[in-house]
């Protein structure tokens, strides 16, 4: 079996990506990054999802980005928006995908894995620059100049299979591959047991996806 | 004054780069990464060098790469070589420069800095793939697709001013700009007070540089 490193946040997108990588026959090594986000419920969700979807192992790398600030996800002085925003939202974490892909690259090299999976998708393009296809391609190109493995003739591929899928398509794909979305956490301000607020951007996108897919929303919401 | 993020390991190369960036008029924000290296003497050296060379501030980001292993610098089960090696040395840390540049990118974006400095140099090319000019260019290209700042029309430049310099040239340049090399630590296995072993690859390259520059080696060595 070919090994792959799968970035797993604990949200619905990365859970679906893990299920897709497993369905393609990869031996999946799931990687989560604890970067000082507001709550740890999504890391607990990542651990459960990794087990349920048969990942070989799940690791959490700790890296403290709160000292840099600049995002409502890592700086508690910036409130999480409850209204749709124009342009790049405050929940954007500077260089987050670059840092997470760099860590995936490091682990892939040690594991001798040639494939990295990340759950960026079309809905995020307009808001987050590091979710665009051109960015993913540029990261892959850079990675293939960065590592001992690439120099020795083993190129690396960065897979972003959700890139051109809508939230509704992601939900259908995940359900078809056995993802239990009630165990995933997308909310930017979930409580410690993983219950969602229902009002942040992430909750809104997620709920809209269930509605568009014509599937009942299995998200666990708390009463605000 | 234009802000810059300068990656500072505590070794002679990055100290010289910091002095060069300051001499070019940048307001320097020095960044060190504690990635689980064998000793902390180089981080103590980085702190001292940052002060001596007038950096605005110095931050250390903690990230534990020891769980990934794969290098004699982060895995204590792999011995540090005391002989020159063919190909990529065991001291290569998987994706290290990619991880460090990604962190510099994140901080630069928060600071609204458009310039990152890194002390990779020609002597390292043959051994470390992520020291090559093509790699640095590919990182810069990727970075300019990754960030909110770049999307909003503020491109980022990655400067590697030592790229085409020999160790002797670096030493002369550093001395001309006031770097006290006795306060820098290059040794892969320095003791906690920063005294060098004198026999590892890094010590050998450093000493050879002083000899080639015709300058007395001010490195503090310990008796092995």
UniProtKB/TrEMBL annotation, chains A, B:
Cofactor binding: number and manner: Binds 1 zinc ion per subunit.
CDD domains, alphabetized: QueC-like
GO biological process: tRNA queuosine(34) biosynthetic process
SUPFAM superfamilies the UniProt entry points to: Adenine nucleotide alpha hydrolases-like
EC number of this enzyme: 6.3.4.20
Xref: HAMAP family: QueC
Function, in words: Catalyzes the ATP-dependent conversion of 7-carboxy-7-deazaguanine (CDG) to 7-cyano-7-deazaguanine (preQ(0)).
NCBIfam families, per database record: 7-cyano-7-deazaguanine synthase QueC
Protein name listed in UniProt: 7-cyano-7-deazaguanine synthase
Organism: Candidatus Gallionella acididurans
Gene expressing this chain: queC
